[in-house]
Specification:
The complex is a heterodimer. Chain A has helices at about 45-60, 85-105, 115-125, 140-155, 180-190, 210-225, 250-265, and strands at about 5-10, 15-20, 35, 65-70, 110-115, 130-135, 175, 180, 205-210, 230-235. By secondary structure, chain A is an alpha/beta fold. Chain B is of the alpha/beta class. The chains are: A alpha/beta, B alpha/beta.
Chain lengths: ~270, ~300
């Protein structure tokens, strides 16, 4: 296999997860290993190319990087209808263990986009090895996000004959081409970044496309990480909701993430 | 689940995943299936449809490979001098070579959406190991020019889809529609209806490469399945060119199907299930078909027939 990426399956033999390890360009001293956490649901496919390029850039900057597919997503085991947030948090734990073992490191950084940033934030609360977070347009509140998803789905279904539309009050089991079981819906409703506080020694980078909407999260992070938060407002295309065939890559944001990690390493 | 990484020794930068058939699914000498990238979408496919399809086919006894072309998904770009427009063909054929060498199959089915359909057709046209190709929402022209296709598709959109959408009517009544486009589309649609009612000499469209390729695949003995989503441009084109396709439809190796109400990438789960069911049924029918001799000429199979322009 090319040294630029090493694909592999890991985790339990019955429910393996797919991952791609990006070995670092050799630098001294070795840098913090980074786990990349993909967006959730329909946002995964349009973001894939961007995440692959982010991993490549970080590896060229000397960081060992692992990006992976949660259970029931991408190339990992599991049918879509089996996907659950509790399981995905456990998958992040598994991926952290795999990356720490592979790099023989004791600390790790998490990088997440959208729902991946949210999950990374929540998962890190129970892992003392996590010392940094790069959070790119995280989903702050699952209930609000779910309402947006449902509104979008209902708007989409208006383009179809009436037989496709749900009667008022009936839940949607398909949201933007992804199966959405009731259990998952309940988990989304309970998801809230503001209910999770970081450990004071962590550092965080928060990049948002809409500054006003991110204000509650920014304040939460600043109060819990005084002097250790870097906030960047970078308006730009929302690549996670774009036409998946377009495969946009916002170079400035990727550079910001690489630079932030590199500055912390020096 | 029985999935492993699939090696490409000649192009070791290519990443592929092989779904091995379930041991419980007894199928003697099945063809292997290769799922071809749709545009720039990586090997899982739009809405993860390649993964869902691969696992369903494997449950029916088919080995299935999905992989990323160079420069797409997890595969890095090529560093040799294979011309860009040939890379997809070279890499699909390498996939077939490797699957043969691994003893997985000697016969193959290809399936792809959008550019995946085009690339599947290009390989099926020349590679006799391909016994079937499922071409989904291909970017076909079939001799029509781009402006004709655009006009036909716009007319279909306004006639069938826009009238169903309350938001379209709100836009019309609140001055937010593109009235010029609506009026132009209506005028052209009326004009084309008038031309159809006028007697006109029946003409054969100049032969085009896509139609030639369809014929060549069928004449070689392989099976061809054309799938189009009702909302997709491919449906507009195939409907408009129903005449030239009629002789192909008369053979038992050519089939075309429409997924009602579906869009280009099957953004509703029900449509994903429908197209997956269709492909699985087709794969089983091809696998169970006895090998047949190539047809010397599709027209001979039907009898000669004057080609006519189809109505939209």
């Amino acid at each position: 296999m090319s040294l630029e990426v090493e694909p592999f399956f890991f985790g339990g033999p019955d429910q393996p997860l797919f991952g791609c390890y990006h070995p670092p360009r050799p630098v001294a001293p070795r840098r913090l290993p980074l786990l990349l956490c993909h967006p959730l649901g329909y946002e995964y496919v349009p973001s894939h190319r961007c995440f692959q390029q982010l991993a490549t850039r970080l590896a060229r900057g000397g960081f060992p990087v692992l990006r992976f597919d949660y259970f029931a997503t991408g190339d990992s085991a599991g049918d879509e209808a089996e996907g659950r947030i509790a399981r995905w948090l456990a998958d992040i734990d598994t991926a952290i263990d795999v990356l720490l073992r592979r790099t023989r490191a004791r600390q790790i950084g998490l990088v997440g986009l959208r729902g991946g940033a949210t999950l990374a934030w929540i998962a890190a609360a129970r892992r003392s090895e996590v010392t940094s977070h790069a959070l790119w347009d995280p989903i702050v509140n699952g209930r609000d996000h779910l309402a947006e998803l449902i509104a979008f789905q209902e708007s989409t279904l208006l383009q179809y004959p009436k037989s496709y539309r749900r009667p008022h009050g009936e839940r949607h089991d398909d949201i933007r081409g992804c199966e959405f079981p009731e259990d998952l819906e309940r988990e989304y409703q309970a998801m809230d970044m503001l209910s999770v506080s970081p450990r004071s020694r962590e550092r965080a980078l928060l990049i948002v496309s809409a500054a006003e909407e991110a204000e509650p999260l920014r304040k939460h992070l600043e109060s819990n990480l005084p002097g250790r938060l870097t906030f960047q407002h970078q308006p730009g295309p929302q690549i996670w909701s774009a036409d998946p065939t377009k495969k946009m890559v916002p170079a400035e944001i990727l550079d910001s993430i690489v630079t932030w990690h590199s500055q912390a390493a020096t | 689940m029985n999935e492993v990484l699939f090696p490409f020794p000649r192009s070791n930068h290519i990443v592929g995943v092989l779904t091995r058939p379930d041991s419980a699914a007894q199928r003697v000498d099945p063809p292997a299936v290769v799922l071809v990238n749709a545009g720039f979408v990586h090997r899982v496919g739009p809405n993860r449809i390649h993964v869902k399809l691969a696992r369903r086919l494997a449950a029916l006894g088919f080995p299935v490979l999905r992989f990323d072309f160079s420069g797409i998904g997890d595969s890095r770009s090529r560093r040799d001098d294979v011309p860009f427009d040939q890379q997809s063909i070279v890499e699909i054929e390498e996939a077939l070579d490797q699957m043969s060498a691994a003893g997985l199959a000697q016969r193959f089915l290809l399936a792809g959406i959008c550019s995946g359909a085009t690339n599947s057709l290009r390989v099926a046209r020349h590679d006799r190991r391909v016994v079937g190709a499922a071409l989904i929402n291909g970017v076909w022209k079939l001799g029509l020019d781009s402006s004709e296709i655009k006009q036909l598709h716009s007319a279909r959109y306004y006639r069938r889809l826009a009238v169903l959408d309350p938001r379209s009517w709100i836009r019309v009544m609140t001055g937010r529609s593109n009235y010029r486009v609506i009026l132009r589309t209506a005028a052209r649609s009326l004009a084309s209806r008038y031309r159809r009612h006028k007697p006109q000499p029946v003409q054969e469209r100049s032969e085009n490469s896509e139609l030639s390729d369809f014929r060549a695949v069928v004449e070689s003995g392989a099976h061809l399945l054309l799938v189009c989503s009702e909302r997709d441009r491919s449906h507009t084109v195939l409907t408009a060119m129903a005449g030239p396709l009629a002789e192909l439809r008369a053979t038992d190796r050519f089939r075309s199907e429409v997924i009602r109400d579906a869009d280009h990438t099957f953004d509703l789960c029900c449509h994903q299930r429908e197209v997956i069911d269709l492909l699985c049924g087709w794969a089983e029918s091809v696998a169970d078909s006895p090998p047949v001799s190539p047809i010397a000429n599709v027209a001979e199979a039907k009898g000669s027939q004057t080609l006519t322009l189809g109505a939209p």
